[in-house]
Structure formats: structure tokens, C-alpha cells
Amino acid sequence: MVPSSRCPDNVRRKPVRYGLAIVAIGTGIGLAGATGQAVAWAEPGTAGSSGQSSGSSSQSSNHSAAGSGHRPKKKPTNRRSTRADRSSAATKVRVPRTVHTDTDTDTSTSTSTSTSTSETVPTGQPDSTAPQKNPVRLTILGKIRSPESEAPESDTAKGDSSRSVTPPAPTRVAQTTAEQTTAEQTTAEEPVAEPPTVAKPLREIVPRARPSARIAVAPRAAAVTTSGTTVTTPDPPEPLSPIAEIAALPGRIVNTVLQVLDITVTADGPKSPINFAPINDAVFAAFREIENSLGLTKTPAVQPVPPAEVYTGPTTGKTPTVAQFLNAATAAYVFGGTPGDLKPFTVDGRQMESTNVLTGMSAKTWVTPDGQIIIAYQGTTGGTNLLHNPLIVISQVVADLQVIFTDTTPQAFTDALVFEQQVEAAAAEQGYRTEDIFVTGHSLGGWEASYVAQQTGLGGIGFESPGLNTTVPGNGNDSGFVNVETYGDAAAYMATDLPGLQPFMPEYVPGGGSKPHYGAIVMVGDPDAAIPLMNAAALWGTGPVGDVVFLVDLLGNFLQYHLPGIQAYHLGVTPDPGVVTWLGYAAGPADDYADMTIPELKKAASDAGRLISA
After folding, report:
1. How far apart are the first and last CA of the chain?
2. In the chain, what are the helix, strand and coil shares in percent, each to the nearest 5?
3. Is the Cβ–Cβ distance between 322 and 601 less than 8 Å?
4. Domain coverage including residue 152
5. Is residue 548 within 8 Å of 542, Cβ to Cβ?
6. From CA 598, how far away is CA 217, in angstroms rounded?
7. Whether residue 345 sits in one domain with residue 198
8. What is the value of pTM for the model shown?
9. Fewest CB atoms less than 10 Å from the CB: which of 229, 274, 379, 388?
10. Cα–Cα dist 165/82, whole Å
11. Which tens digit of pLDDT belongs to each residue from 544-578?
């Protein structure tokens, strides 16, 4: 029998066929929606957006004709995916669509200049007037996406389950806020047919800035910007810890007793009822009479004059004052002494210092009220420090003789340099610059300070220091280091750039020689005080008597002019602290140099004709 729609069996099967058809259509629509292209949102610029949208539509059509509906699996955490170019009968075109941010509002035209976007629609016909309901725009990695782009995709493309899956593109590192803004503007102004990629435009338009050079400053230091210049303010010096205070107490007690005995002095300490000055004056007056009777005070026939230097440099450099340098150098001789207005440079509650009994190097660090560090090296014997460390005098005398009678550098000088490097590292952690560190010392301490300055370029003042066995071009004549020497002091003339001790010392060479000073030389005192020393040096090598006369006169002049109390007098400095300030003979003018910085000192000495080239 011929089947007919009127047949009872066919009547019963008809609802079933309709149901299956509806299920198939629904399934197809669902699969089409699941495998559809995610919509990419981009805001075009306000100027000429209509023309740009038209061009974008044409480009999108050409690209979609070569594409397919097959898409790889997209991971939920991936923000962007790529698709391979594969042939397909389905054609998708990118058309401009106007979208407003207001909820439940239809769009009107594709030429809107406010929030028009470019959307990929899975259809063969453009639709520029279709309403967009509740559009939610997500700004991710510099571009705006629709909520549909965040939905996970099917594992395989429809109708091609055997094709390999193309891996998703790597996630780009999030850009800065400025890069995001630039990316939005760039995507809006230049819509392209390819899936939006912001990596290239961002690198071309907003290049990443290279990290600037880092300056070593302490994290706790405050940086103040003034007129485009960053000035680092170091931390104020921390006080000594209670344990360090207790450890320093014996030295302070001993120093107080020595002040009562007129061995040491301080500006605010007890005044001694004892006065050794008259005895000192009588002894040296007798000594000078002996020199006169031996004919040592006569002007020599040949008296070389070292070349004077005219200082033309700046006088505005910020350094510690002459008084601060001298008091720090003198404090190295005073057991328990503290220089004037300076404070200890502390690390973990303890003053940074170093002592090596075997080599003779000993030093302490101080901080000025202006936030500058002074490393003060100890001179021979250590002064009253002999009361608690007498053995160091042996190694210090050996270091003196090594420099004078050989052309080598003592280990004490190397230790001094190592200590400076340690101080520099600790100071940097507290916000100090290298320019804030200075060196000083008297006698052997000044020797060590000049060596450290020569090796590092630091500024400072060395008092009564001889010449070095190491030389550099120019001998630091234009450096920030200065030697203060007293006319007649034997230690000052143990060099080849000052005439006076030849032939005991090597040949004199103006401004140099084999044992020159490092840094310019500032002479203080009476120039005629050097005459007896020159005449006595001429007797060296003439016989036993001549050698003895020379050695005695060398020692007598050393005691008259070498000690720090004599420099304090000639420089106009009030000793704070001072050691045996009554010992010596102050001959010559007392200059008012106490409050001068290093540049000011060089200028004043130059004007007085007492600045000598090293």
C-alpha cells in the first residue's frame, strides 16, 4: 500500500518527525553558537571614524573569506587566541556596529563618534543597525573585549575532529596604565582585520624606558631635590650603645686625671694647677743658644727656595675646617679624648675604629656637624694611648724608619687604606657619599692619610708628614689634600720636594723627586727656623762629630716644631683636645686659619706666599 499522510501509521509518526527536526535545528544552532568567533571590541577615534569603519569592514571581509569556522581549544586563563587560516564554506565578515554604554539602548548609526566598535558577526550579511543589549566592555591588556570572548570554546572544530589543535598564543605581560591608554587609542585609530594584537604597536609607540644607572645610597637616607639636583642627606650619627659607653669610661677617667696633671687639655675640661711651660721655654732657649754658638744660625751660602704656587681654584668647596681636622688628628694621641664638636661615626652602636699592634696602624672615625666623615690616623707613640697600648710604639717607629731609609711602603699604610675602604662601605649604607669622607693625621698619621689620599683621591689635611715612596703624575698638586708643615720641623723636610736635609735625604727636586709629598704644601711658622737644620744637615757625612751634631740638632728641632700644639698656635686653633700643648717653641706668626675649609686655606696660603707645589 502506498504510504499516505492519511494513513494511521503515518499520522502517528508525523509528530515524531517534527520533534526530531526541531531537536536537530536546535542542536545546529547551539553548535553554531558554541563554535562562533569571539567578538573583539575596539573604540575608533572620534575624528573620521566613519571612513575608518568602512575600511575596516572591507579588510575584515577579505580576511574572513580565507578563514574557517574551525577554532582551537581556548584555555580559560588565556586572554588572546589565534586561529589558523583554513578553507571553509562558511564566510564571516567584520562589520562596524555602533554600541552605546547605556544599558538597554539601541544603536543608531555606524558613524557615531562616541563608542562605535568593530565586531565580527558570524553571518554573510553586514548588520550595522542591530541593537546591542547590555554591552559590558572589559579592558584587558590594553584592549576592550566583549563578555562572549571570555567564554570557553569547544575542544575541536565542528566537522573536523581529526585535525590537530593550534596552541593558543602566549599571554602578554600586563602593561602599565600609560601603555593601556595608548593601546586603546592606537586600536581605535587603526583598526585592522587581524585579531587585535597590542604587542607591536605598544613597543613602537610607547617604548619601555631603560632602567637608569643606580647610585649607591642608603635606603634610610633622605633624598632632597633642589633645582633639578638630588642631594642625599645622610643619617645623623647614632649615639654609642650603653656597652660602648661603659667601654669608653676608663679612657675618659684617665684623660680627666691627665688634664689635672697638665698633660692633656680640652675646651671644657678641668684646668690644671700645674704649668710646665716655663720649664719648656727655658730648655729650648738654652738649646737655641747652643745652636748659635755652633754657628748653625748663620744664613747658608746656598739656600734653595721651593717654588711658590698661586692658587686660582674655587674657594666654595664644602669640607671640614682646619680646626676640625687638627683636633681630630690630635685626638688620636689622647686616650679617651673626643675632638671638639665632632661625634663618633658609629656602626651598630660602636665607633668605627681599627688598631693593628703588629703594623702600627690605628685610626678612628668622626662625623662633623655638617655630616662629613673624618678618618683620623694615629701618629708615632700614640701619645697617652701608651698607657693602655705601649707595644704599638715599636711597630710605629719601625714604619717610620722604613719610609725614611728605604723606598718601600710599610704595611701600616696598606692597613690604613683597607680601613678607609671599610669606612667607605659602612658610610654608604648610612647615606654618605664618597665626597663626604676625608682623612687626616699627624706625623705618622699624616703620612698614612696622605698615602690613602694618593691611592683614593680623597681630600683632607696631613700635619707634619714626610714624603712618600710612591708617586703619581702631578703629585696631587691639584687634589683636595693639603700638607701643613712647620718651618724647622725635621719631619717635614724628610722629603725631596723641600730643601733642608740634603745630603741626609736624597737630592732635592723642586716639586718632586723620589720622596715627594702628595698634595700642595702649606708652610706655617718662621722661615728662618729652618736655617739651623740646613746648616746641621751639611755636616752629615763629614765625620763622627759632624754626624753627632746633625743628629742632636735634628732631634732638638723635631721637639721644638713638630708637636700638634705648635700647629694649633700657628693656625689659630684652640686645642680641643690637646696633648702636651706646652711642649715646643712657637716662632713666627699666628694665622687665623682655624675656620677655613681646604680651598679657603689654599687660597689664604697662596696670598701669603706660603703655598708650595708638591
Report:
1. 133
2. 35, 15, 50
3. yes
4. 35-73+87-162+172-205
5. no
6. 26
7. no
8. 0.65
9. 229
10. 11
11. 999 999 999 999 999 999 999 999 999 999 999 99
The number of distinct structural domains making up the chain is 3
Query: What is the DSSP annotation of 114-167?
Result: SSEEEEEESSSS--SS----S---EEETTEEE-GGGGS---SS-TT-TTSPPPP
Has residue 107 been placed in a domain?
yes
| Structural domain includes residue 238 | no
pLDDT for 472 equals 93
Do 486 and 586 share a structural domain?
yes
Does residue 182 sit within a domain? Answer: yes
Give yes or no for a contact between 420 and 453, defined as CB atoms under 8 angstroms apart: no
Residue carrying the nine cell digits 763622627 = 544
User: What letter would DSSP give residue 574?
Assistant: P
Q: Which three cell numbers stand for residue 176?
A: 602599565
Indicate whether 177 and 320 sit together in one domain: no
Please confirm whether the linkage preceding 320 is cis (ω < 30° from 0): no
- Note whether 184 and 132 are same-domain residues: yes
**pLDDT for residue 230:** 57
Q: Residue 375 phi/psi, 5° resolution? A: -95, 120
pLDDT at residue number 228: 55
Nearest to residue 486, comparing CAs of 527, 516, 457? 527
Q: Are residues 312 and 323 in the same domain?
A: yes
pLDDT digits (tens, 9 = 90+) for 485-497: 999 999 999 999 9
